[in-house]
Amino acid sequence: MSLISVDEALGRLLSDIKPLEGEEVPLAEANGRILAAPLSARRTQPPFPASAMDGYAVRAADIMQVPADLKIIGEAPAGHGFSGSIGPGETVRIFTGAPVPEGADTILIQENARRDGNRVTALEALSQGSFVRKAGLDFVEGQELLTAGRRLNFRDIALAAAMNHACVPVVRKPRIAILATGDELVLPGQNPGADQIIASNSFGVAAFVEDCGGIAVDLGIAADTEEALAEKIRKAADAKVDILVTLGGASVGDHDLVQDALGAEGMELAFWRIAMRPGKPLMAGHIGPMRVLGLPGNPVSSLVCSLLFLKPLLFAIQGADIPSRKLETARLGTDLGENDRREDYLRARLSRDEHNDLVATAFGRQDSSMLATMTAADALIVRSPYAPAAKSGEIVPILRLDSR
């Protein structure tokens, strides 16, 4: 199977996505979830003309000429409106958020008033409507304010509460099984043998899944045998996960058994091997309703492929707007040689030069096993296939990495 481009692979991966079903959750549990249906206001906000400041509810006509003496006939704290009506020469002491009494049309703020017993003197003339929040200033009942597919954040949660929603419809969280493969791997905290290394990919990808709104299901580490792999793949299918992510074992070596094991379990292969660096052995397919994404085994490759492929897939099955590769531009901080036929993603640090221009400086070594440089990087310099050599100072596209 020949190499395909990043764009073609992404297109195939997302071509037949159907969002997961929705569910109702309490508002307190909705942060970060994807809204499954539009959300409309169940009330008008504010539901009545309200005072925007502490002060006195007055008729603007009574304070056109100042100083103006007014009689205080009552009080209106928030939550307890004044039940009477204000007539000429009268006022009501009012507090922020309280309903403006009948007959009043303006709020004289307390800084511009002088009180003496049950009398108050207005020291400033105001135009009608000053410091009054009109009914419906924020929104009106029935108004659609949050759209389906939106990932709810703290601002949305506050708005939904103000709209009088105790529960909201959200897309079910996708369940993502993560399977590390290889006899060379042991878990963090264990003592590796002379020929073994610590497994890191599964922890990084699990955290990435959770950042994207999914639930990570750890399948552990499968040994390099078809029997061990088959057992784990069946476990994922039996658990009815939405996506199985495999880590490693999808290349062309004698011990890379993952693709054969998946095929034996009925996987229909969508594509394998991408014209990109790092991440060439990326694989995708499905076993019945369970989607399969085979990530490369090298740590940086698996994380870069998660950013470029797993993130859009997770957003798509949640019915969210699929995040595009938001490329920015920066000046090169160092020379780069010409590129080959693969799209290249180089780890780089960002800085500012004396002109405040953004500068991207690629790390000298880009080996896909080097996690320390992945953590230290701020962005990836994106180089198209067959890009010519580039000099320091030239403009190049970059893809920022999340700061988390």
Number of helices: 7
CATH class of the largest domain: Alpha Beta
- Strand order across the biggest sheet? 7-4-6-5-9-8
Q: Fraction of residues in helices?
A: 10-25%
Beta-strand residue fraction: 25-35%
CATH topology of the largest domain: Molybdenum Cofactor Biosythetic Enzyme, Chain A
Helix and strand composition category: alpha/beta
Overview of the structural elements:
With 404 residues, the protein is of the alpha/beta class. The chain folds into 4 domains: 6-20 and 172-317, Molybdenum Cofactor Biosythetic Enzyme, Chain A, CATH 3.40.980; 23-45 and 138-171, Molybdopterin biosynthesis moea protein, domain 2 (Alpha-Beta Complex); 50-133, Beta Complex (Molybdopterin biosynthesis moeA protein, domain 3), CATH 2.170.190; 327-400, Beta-clip, CATH 2.40.340. It has helices spanning 6-13, 154-162, 201-211, 226-238, 258-264, 299-317, 371-376, and strands at residues 22-26, 39-40, 50-51, 55-58, 68-76, 90-94, 106-109, 113-116, 119-122, 132-133, 144-146, 167-171, 175-181, 185-186, 197-198, 215-222, 243-247, 268-272, 276-277, 283-287, 290-295, 327-332, 343-352, 358-362, 379-383, 395-400. The strands form 7 sheets. The protein has a 6-stranded mixed beta sheet, with no helix packed on it. A 6-stranded mixed beta sheet has the order 16-13-17-21-20-18, sandwiched between helices. The chain has a 5-stranded mixed barrel with strand order 22-24-23-25-26. Strand 23 (343-352) and strand 24 (358-362) form a beta hairpin. Helix 3 packs parallel to helix 6 (299-317) and helix 4 crosses helix 5 (258-264). It is elongated. The relative contact order is 0.13. The model has no long low-confidence stretch (mean pLDDT 94).
